[in-house]
Specification:
- The chain has about 240 residues and is mainly alpha-helical.
- It has 2 domains: about 5-75, Orthogonal Bundle (Cytochrome Bc1 Complex, Chain D, domain 2), CATH 1.10.760; about 105-230, Cytochrome c-like domain (Cytochrome Bc1 Complex, Chain D, domain 2, Orthogonal Bundle).
- The protein contains 10 helices and 4 strands, in the order ββααααααααββαα.
- The chain has helices spanning about 25-30, 35-40, 50, 65-75, 105-115, 130-140, 165-170, 185-190, 215-220, 220-230, and strands at about 10-15, 15, 205, 210.
- Helix 6 (about 130-140) packs across helix 10 and helix 7 (about 165-170) packs across helix 8.
């Protein structure tokens, strides 16, 4: 399916191909199957040609072809590519602010280097929010692969600027059907059970299922989930 639709004419895998559109080596880990399936059915629901200056043509693939292509990209994403292709070095300030786009190994190194000399443990040692910031940048997939921290900068997922304020509004709304009772409870629920409450918008869900990966409840420890919720709760 990849070759039949000439995906390599615009995209790269392991840095091989054309550079008109994003490298897809790790896209299955960064976006997840639900998102990729919906995107391949109709890319125009996710990106605007006038705003983004380019738009993936609608390929009119069958559901079986989409499933096969997603399975292929999932297989590719699990190859140990030793960090190849290298991440491009930005030499201007044109990137979206506050996305925290450091790779996991660099993010961890930055967090460690921020400590006073002789300190042995994580950032701010025992501060849950500071520890949660590290989780935000280093989870797999990293939260900042889909979420910005800048107001109005919606990416594959909604911006997390003002997350705590929205969480408070949601848990007190009669339309809320989840189980959380407070802000951090809702944020934890959103991390581990993203379909418990669907954020409005065709970019974020389909058929009542969130595009956000539902693997964090398994891949993160309860302590990490609590730390991440504490960090997100600082965004009023």
């Amino acid at each position: 399916v990849w070759h039949k639709n000439n995906c390599i004419n615009c995209h790269t895998l392991f840095g091989e191909g054309a550079y008109y559109a994003p490298d897809l080596t790790k896209i299955a880990q960064q976006r997840g199957a639900q998102y990729l399936q919906a995107y391949m059915r109709d890319p125009s629901k996710f990106y605007n040609e006038q705003r983004h200056r380019r738009l993936m043509p609608k390929q009119d693939m069958t559901d079986a072809e989409i499933a096969d292509l997603v399975a292929f990209l999932d297989w590719v994403s699990k190859v140990d590519n030793q960090g190849w292709p290298p991440r491009p070095i930005l030499v201007t300030g044109a990137s979206i602010a506050a996305t925290g786009t450091l790779p996991p190994d660099q993010a961890a190194a930055v967090a460690k280097s921020a400590l006073p000399p002789g300190t042995k443990s994580g950032p701010a040692d025992k501060d849950p929010a500071a520890l949660g910031e590290v989780v935000f940048r280093t989870a797999t997939p990293a939260c900042n692969a889909c979420h910005s921290l800048t107001a109005g900068a919606n990416m594959a997922g909604p911006t997390l600027a003002g997350a705590a304020t929205r969480a408070q509004q949601i848990v007190t709304s009669p339309d809320y059907k989840g189980k959380a009772k407070d802000v951090e409870g809702y944020l934890s629920e959103a991390i581990t059970h993203p379909s418990a409450h669907i954020v409005p918008g065709a970019m974020y869900s389909a058929n009542g299922v969130s595009f956000m990966p539902n693997t964090y409840g398994k891949d993160l420890t309860p302590e990490q989930v609590a730390q991440l919720a504490a960090y997100l709760a600082t965004f009023k």
